[in-house]
Amino acid sequence: MARILLQSKSAAVNPLKSSQPLGAAFAFLGVDGAMPLFHGSQGCTSFALVLFVRHFKEAIPLQTTAMDEVATILGAADHLEEAILNLKNRTKPKLIGVCTTALVETRGEDCAGDIANIKLKHTQELAGTEVVLANTPDFDGAIEEGWARAVTAMIEGITRSGERARHPKKIAILPGCNLTVADVEHMRDMVESFGLKPVILPDISGSLDGTVPDRWVATTYGGTSVEDIRELGTAMQCIAIGEHMRRPAKALLGLTGVPYVLFQSLTGLQDTDRFVSLLSSISGAAVPARVRRRRAQLQDAMLDGHFHFGGKKIAIAAEPDQLFQLATFFAGLGSEIAAAVTTTDRSKILEKVPAVSVQIGDLGDLESLAVGADLLVTHSHGRQASERLRISLMRIGFPVFDRLGSQHKLAILYQGTRDLIFEVANIFQANQHAPTPEALDPLRNREISHERCSPPLAGQ
Amino acid sequence: MSSLSAKIKDAFDEPACDKNRGKDAKARKEGCSKSLTPGAAAGGCAFDGAKIVLQPITDVAHLVHAPLACEGNSWDNRGAVSSGPTLWRTSFTTDLTELDLVMGQGERKLFKAIREIKHTYAPPAIFVYSTCVTALIGDDIEAVCKRATEKFGLAVVPINAPGLAGSKNLGNKLAAEALLDHVIGTVEPDDPGPYDINILGEFNLSGEFWLVKPLLDRLGIRVRACIPGDARYRDIASAHRARAAMMVCSTALISLARKMEERWDIPFFEGSFYGISDTSQALRNLVRLLVRKGADPEILERTETLIAQQEAIAWKKLESYRQRLQGKRVLLNTGGVKSWSVVHALMEIGIEIVGTSVKKSTVQDKERIKQVLKHDKHMFESMAARELYAMLSEHRADIMLSGGRTQFIALKAKTPWLDINQERQHPYAGYDGMVELVRQIDLAIHNPIWSQVRQPAPWDCQPDLIGELPCTRNETAYLFDEFACATAHEC
C-alpha cells in the first residue's frame, strides 16, 4: 500500500494541477448544445479557455459572469442572472453548466439559491434550457473532482428520479476525465459489438473530436443529449470508469436504482478481461471474434514489448485515477514506479498505486524525485523538467499543448493497451544509447554507487 | 484597496494618450475600461495583463499569491524568448487551499514561499502578484514584500493588480506602475553612455527583437533595457540612465514612457518595428533623440546609409512575392493594427486589404485607415463570430490575419489564417520580419490543403455515381470523373 506524502512546501513550483472549475467545464463540454459558465472574474474564464484551446485546437464555448469589484463586494447574483439570460438569448443552449470559482466561493455566495430564484423568475424565458450548478472552488480539488462534480450535478439536476421500466440493452456509462475522445469512441464500439446500447455521460467523443461543421455554432455540437441524461434511469446497468466517478454513479443509483459497476482502470489485460466479461454477461452474447483477436494482439504486444519495460524506472505525475491507470500499466509490464506525484489527497485510489509512496505535489516535486528515472510521464508542462533532467517525456493527460492529436490517442481496452506498449517501447528504442567501454568497465562501475541495481519491487 | 483605487484612477488619466485627451472630464473619470457584459465578455483580467507585461523579465521569480487557477491554468503560455536565464518560465504560486483561506494563513504562507524561493533559486528579485481572492480576504502583500525585502536582502516587489480590478489593459498599466514604484532607478549603472536607449513594450515574441538589435548594434546604440522582452532585473533597475526611449506597444506602457520622461528626462517617441518604413522611421527617431541628448551627429548619416542598404534588400526580397500575392485579399482582424507600414508594405506588393477591425484604434488611426484604404466601408468595430464565419466561408477574403481568439472561426470556414498576435510562431519585426510575414502569408494561402478540404465528399457531389462500382470501369476514367466532379462544384 502506497504511503501518501502530503505537501509541505509553501511555494508550489510548476503546478501539476489544472483547476477544479476547468474540470467541471470539461465535463459540461461533453453534452450537446452546452455552454459552460464560470461564475467569477473574467480572468478565471480567459485562462481556462486559452488552456482548453491550446489542448484541443478547437473553438471552446466558455463564458463568464465577469465579476468586478462591485460584484465582489455587494454580491454577484445579478451578474449570474444577467449572464444566464444573455447566454440563453444569444446562443440558445440546451444546457448552461455553471461552475463556481474561488472568488465567488470565498465570498460564500448561495449560488444554488440564486439559480433557483433565477429559474423561478424566468421560467418562460429559460424554457428548453437546463441550468445546472457545480460548486467547484479553485482552492480545492483539481480536474477530476471538478469533472465528477459536474457529472453528479447533471444527474441530480436533470435525470428523472424514481424506479423506471428498464431497457434490457441500455447501459449507462460514466467515463472519467482521463479517457480521451479515442478511448470513448473505442469503448462505444466495444459495447455496441455486444448488441448493447450505451449512453455515455459526458461524451466528449461527440463534441471535442475535432470536426468541421458546416455552419457556425456557438455552443458545443455533439455529445450526450440532455434528453439522454433525463432518461438515464431506464438503463439496465451503469458502468463507471475511474474512482472519481463513484460519486455520480452513486447519485444515479440513489435517484433511480440503476446499479453500478466501477472499473478503476480499463488499461491492461486483466481489467479489460473483466470489462469484456461483464458486457458478455449483461448482453448474454458471446465475445465477438474481433474482440478475441484484439486480445490476442495485446498478448503478443506484451510478449514483444516486455523486454523494454522490465526494470525501467518510471516517474509519473498525473491526477489520481490517471496515475493509478498508468502506474498499474507500467508495473504490470515489469517497470518500477520510481516517482508518483498527484494533485490531491482526496482520492481513495491513491493507496492502491503500485509505488512505495505517492507525493501530493507539483512538477517541481516530480523533477526532484525523477532524478535517475528512465521516463517521465505527465502532461506538456513536464517539458521543462524533461529538458533539464535529459529524460524523455511521454505526454499524457491535460494539457497537451505542444503535440497534436492527444485526443485521438487510445489508451484503454485491449487495443489501447497494445498501442500504449508500442508507444513506450518506441520512446525507449528511439533514445537507446550504444554501449561504450567506459559505461561497461567493471572496475569503474564498482567505484560509483550501485544505484543502477535497484531492488525488485516489493510485493512482486 | 484605497491605494489600489488611487493607482487605477491615476492609470486612467494619461496625458500622453490621444484617446484619453479626446474625452471630456467626466468620461475621463470613468476610465477606459468598458464595463463587461456578463455572459458576453471576452479577454483577460488585470492580473493577466500585469503578468503579461512583467513575466518576460527572465531572471526574476514570479510568485502568484492565489488559489490554483490564476497560475496553474496559465503558466508557460506565451511566446517571449530569453537569451539566458530560464527562471521566468518556472512557475511559482502559493496554491492557497481552503484551509489556508479559512484559517487566514495567506500572508504567512506567502512569506514562507518567498523564503523557499530565495533559498532554492537565489534570484535577484521576486515579483509577488496579488489576485482576486487574496485581495478579497485582505492579504497585505505590500507589507509582506516589505518585510521580506528587509529580512532576505533581495528585491521583493508587490504587483498589486488583482483580476477583479478590471481589464488586461489596466493590468498592463498597473504593472508599469509597480516598476516605477519599486524597480526602475534602484540600481546605478557603472557604465552609462551617450548611446544608451530603452525599448518599452517590446516582448521579444519568437525572439523577434533579435531581428532588430543587430541593426542597433551596428549603429553603436546600446539597449540599456528592453522592457520586458528578454530583460534582466538589473537592466530594468538601471533603465533610468538611458538617454532616449522608444515606445513600441502604445496602449500597454505609455504611462511608463511618460513618467520616465518626467522623472529622469528620458525623451521618448512612439514607434514600431513592424513594416519597412516604420522600422526605418524608428531608427531615425532614435538617433535623432540621442543626438538631441548629446550624441555625435555623425550617427545620423550612418543611420541613413544603413537604412538605405537594408530597405533595398528587403524590397528586393518582397518583390519576388508580388506575382504570387498580387490581388490576394487580406482581412485584418486584430485589436488595433499596430503599424500602418505593414499594411502599406502589403499593398505595395499588390495585396488588397478587404477589411480591418478598428476596435482599439484611435481617431487618428481611423483617419489613416480611410486614407490608406480609400473608403471606410472596410472598417468594422468588431465582428460577431457568426458574421465573421459567414464572410470567410463565402470566400470574401483569401486570408485572415488575427490573434488566436478567432483562429478557429477562420479554420472552420476553411480559410487560410495567420497568427499575428502573441502566440505566433514567427518573428515579424524589422526588415527581415516583414519579409517573413509576407512569406508566411504566401505559404498559408498557397498550401495545397485548401483545395482538398473544401472539396465535398465525392458521394455528396454526384449521387448518380454511387450506384456504379469503380471496378466496372477503367481507373483513368474513374479518376477523371472525380476530377470533373471537383471542378463542377467549384463553378
UniProtKB/TrEMBL annotation, chain B:
Classification lineage: Bacteria, Pseudomonadati, Pseudomonadota, Alphaproteobacteria, Hyphomicrobiales
Protein name, per record: Nitrogenase iron-molybdenum cofactor biosynthesis protein NifE
UniProt-listed SUPFAM superfamilies: Helical backbone' metal receptor
UniProt function note: This protein may play a role in the biosynthesis of the prosthetic group of nitrogenase (FeMo cofactor).
InterPro entries noted in UniProt: Nase/OxRdtase_comp1 (IPR000510), Nase_comp1_CS (IPR000318), NifE (IPR005973), NifE-like (IPR049939)
Keywords: Nitrogen fixation
Residues forming coiled coils: none
Organism of derivation: Mesorhizobium muleiense
GO biological process: protein-containing complex assembly
Pathway involvement of the protein, from the record: Cofactor biosynthesis; Fe-Mo cofactor biosynthesis
PANTHER family associated with the record: NITROGENASE IRON-MOLYBDENUM COFACTOR BIOSYNTHESIS PROTEIN NIFE (PTHR42956:SF1)
